[in-house]
Amino acid sequence: MNKRLSAMIVTVFSLFVLSLSVSAQAVSELEEGTYSIDFLVVKAGENEQSMMNDYVEKPGTLTVRDGKAYVSFTLTDSKSITGFKVNQNGVLTDANVISQNEAANTRSVEFEVTSFAAPIEAWVSVYMNLPGFLYDADYDIRIQLDETSIRPATPSSPPPSAQPNGDVIVLHINSKAVTSNGAQHQLLAAPYVKSNRTLVPLRFISEHLGADVKWNGSERSVTVTVDGKTLVLHEGSQVIQVNGARHTIEAAPEIKQGTTFVPLRFISEQLGATVEWNQTQQRVTIRN
């Protein structure tokens, strides 16, 4: 009886190990390309759905390239999600931001996966400061990938922000080369990053979005007029005027090589443009 029981245990254990091996190999067996994949965000140590599941767009994207697999998806309410880390080789690591749309308040993150079998340990930090409501917390979560949902990605119409209508300006960090509606131009000074903020040339972007820009040398100020709105900025001051009313922006305008630079967020919030950020290519795309 004991021998039969032992044999059964060995058989069950062998099948269990074999099933894990098959799941672990599933990633490497996929052909290079792009797939859709469903997933669920659950609480750490539980199978109960996490609140974070309501702040992701589904399905996600599974990309296989150079023999490795990467999962990406979009975080909604990006400004409130101040941190997002994923377990990579036993270490919680910031997920790679592959694109960002400040106007839509979203960002897309990507991370490598080596197996679909086990949930992926992750961590999120959330800060919401609303009238009468303050939420400031960070907590562990798990991402459960649904291997059975994997399907080859099908071409789809680009989102409205990607349609070739209106003005499109493309810049790269630390590069003077820029394109506006497909035409190539050369900036006097390149966009740059300072204190984790991206600063871009105000005049070039404003004028190519149809605004009028005037410089007042005695006051060291810039006046931008567009769509019935008048903006007045002063070098070194975070306080700006919008149709005469005082507002504060996240960083003061700076002047480099005769060019006034402003935070990227200023372009979206004050000029009404859609701003997209590609971390991998260090590229800024501005659409009107």
TrEMBL record:
Keywords: Cell wall, Peptidoglycan-anchor, Secreted, Signal. It is a peptidoglycan-anchor. The keyword Endoplasmic reticulum does not apply. SUPFAM superfamilies: Copper amine oxidase, domain N (SSF55383), NEAT domain-like (SSF158911). Residues 30-153 form the NEAT domain. Residues 1-26 form the signal peptide. The keyword Mitochondrion does not apply. Its main location: secreted. Pfam families: Cu_amine_oxidN1, NEAT. It is found in: Secreted, Cell wall. Transmembrane segments: none annotated. PANTHER family: IRON-REGULATED SURFACE DETERMINANT PROTEIN C. This is Stalk domain-containing protein. It comes from Halalkalibacter oceani. The lineage of its organism: Bacteria, Bacillati, Bacillota, Bacilli, Bacillales.
